[in-house]
Amino acid sequence: MDKEAYSNDEGKTGSAFAAAKKEDGKKNNNDTDNKMLLLKIKSRNITVNKDNIMYVESHRRKKEIHMTDGVIEIYSTMDELNYRLGNGFYQCHRGYIVNMAHVRKYSCDSITISSGELVYMSKEKYNGFKNSYNLYLGSI
């Protein structure tokens, strides 16, 4: 069944989904909003540029966001951060999310970041990372 017929059959649900997808597309096209990430640290909120994030490391409930100019600790889940970071980031291990722009080299078990730090990669994620990184390189 094609998308248009599906939308007509579903009525309000189909059109609501289409409207949400269209609105999401508008957000992704706005480069300024897409490059910034709002983080809650204790009782204050800060905004960081996603380009400055090298990788995220999980330590139980705390997540360390390794930036080009320091480390920020927040409470969040990896799933939530992975979603909020969006394109250009890849979860290469259950405890790490890397920024593709800061990848310098990789092997089947690790990724070297622009700072020289090593980030672990699980063997199950290697092929997915390889494909995503090639797509990323093709888009820049």
Task: Provide the fold topology.
Elements: H1 3-10, H2 12-29, H3 31-35, E1 36-41, E2 44-49, E3 53-59, E4 62-67, E5 70-75, H4 78-85, E6 89-93, E7 96-99, E8 103-106, E9 110-113, E10 118-120, H5 126-139
Helix pairs in contact: 1-2
Architecture overview:
The protein is of the alpha+beta class and 140 residues long. It is 38% helix and 36% strand. The chain has a five-stranded antiparallel beta sheet with strand order 5-4-3-7-6. A hairpin with a 3-residue loop joins strand 8 and strand 9.
Major sheet details? 5 strands, antiparallel
Number of helices: 5
Return the average pLDDT rounded to an integer: 83
Strand content: 35-45%
Shape: globular
- Please report the total strand number as a whole number: 10
Structural class: alpha+beta
How far is the first residue's CA from the last residue's CA?
A: 35 Å
Which H/E pattern describes the elements?
HHHEEEEEHEEEEEH
Radius of gyration, rounded?
Answer: 18 Å
Order of neighbouring strands in the sheet with most strands: 5-4-3-7-6
Helix content: 25-40%
